[in-house]
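Quick one, tokens below:
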């Protein structure tokens, strides 16, 4: 099955991103034909700083490779290294009714938040459709906010196919309903915009400090602690198998340990989970050319696929 995921590079990754998006995505490379790219043309719709956009793109590549994207299994590239997608975007625009774009939630939300509307922001879903259709993608794993964009992609593809024959594969979105919303240190959804996130690649001391800030109730030391609903327990259990969870519950109920102990334990769990990723990351940061080579290999593979598909599309519409 050909699966495509697009990454918006937006800075430091946190544990919510890891469990809610990256880990399940990276696991797909074991069973599917996975294509993953960094959507920097999309990021341009809201970027104001060239250096920053370039840096965030590189950082995202390093982070994803460190956390487990295997370039031997997954085709991994930067969107703007395969500009063929922009030609398809233009061609697809002709099959995109204005009304379809006007109904896009994500566009309406951004405008409601005060972001000045421009054409790139408005036509964002058409570029996303081009990403998906260029590759004959079958499945697109997305968060709930992106389902509508995949539906729009299908609408656009159907319109095109009706006019010019069966050129595009109709993609389906995949939403992992069972994925939990990971809580932040205040118990609300972890998000970089709420200042409640625990970042994956923190320094050890800073990580402990962050864990110490987790809001918990104030059962005095010596009394059993309720683990149900405890933020520390909820975060720790992400890293534990059922047996280990039961052990931790027993520790909570024993009355021998307090929140401080569990915060230390949580820090250890997080620190140990990412040991290998930290080492890989340090290595990639010292060898940026290796990262560039991986991305360039990915782009080359994509170029071939893109050129072949565009030859068919151009012929279908009369651009030859
Ligand atoms: P943020 O809310 O920090 O800005 P993003 O919107 O950049 O995070 O999310 C990137 C991906 O990580 C999305 O697929 C999103 O569903 C997932 N994600 C983010 N926060 C969480 C969370 N707290 N729990 C589960 N998944 C999350
Ligand atoms: N819009 C997606 C997001 O914000 C990123 C994206 C761009 C994407 N093109 C894509 C995702 C194609 C899947 C397929 O998360």
């Amino acid at each position: 099955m050909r699966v495509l995921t697009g990454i918006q590079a937006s800075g430091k990754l946190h544990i919510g991103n890891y469990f809610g998006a990256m880990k399940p995505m990276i696991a797909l490379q074991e069973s599917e034909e996975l294509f993953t790219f960094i959507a920097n043309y999309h990021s341009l719709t809201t970027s104001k700083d060239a250096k920053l956009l370039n840096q965030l793109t590189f950082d995202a590549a390093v982070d994803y490779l460190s956390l487990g994207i295997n370039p031997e299994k997954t085709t991994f590239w930067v969107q703007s290294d395969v500009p063929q997608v922009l030609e398809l975007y233009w061609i697809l625009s002709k099959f995109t009714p204005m009304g379809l774009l006007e109904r896009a939630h994500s566009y309406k939300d951004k405008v409601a938040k005060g972001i000045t509307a421009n054409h790139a922001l408005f036509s964002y879903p058409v570029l996303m459709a081009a990403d998906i259709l260029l590759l004959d993608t079958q499945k697109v794993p997305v968060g709930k906010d992106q389902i509508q964009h995949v539906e729009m992609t299908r609408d656009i593809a159907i319109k095109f196919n009706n006019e010019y024959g069966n050129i595009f594969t109709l993609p389906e979105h995949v939403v992992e309903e069972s994925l939990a919303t990971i809580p932040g240190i205040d118990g609300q959804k972890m998000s970089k915009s709420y200042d409640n996130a625990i970042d994956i690649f923190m320094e050890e001391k800073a990580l402990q400090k962050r864990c110490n800030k987790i809001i918990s109730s104030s059962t005095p030391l010596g009394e059993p602690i309720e683990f149900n609903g405890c933020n520390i327990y909820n975060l720790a259990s992400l890293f534990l198998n059922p047996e280990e969870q039961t052990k931790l519950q027993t520790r909570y109920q024993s009355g021998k340990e307090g929140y401080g102990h569990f915060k230390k334990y949580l820090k250890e769990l997080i620190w140990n989970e990412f040991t290998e990723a930290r080492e890989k990351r340090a290595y990639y940061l010292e060898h940026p050319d290796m990262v560039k080579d991986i991305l360039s290999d990915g782009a080359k593979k994509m170029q071939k696929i893109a050129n072949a598909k565009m030859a068919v599309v151009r012929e279908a519409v009369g651009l030859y």
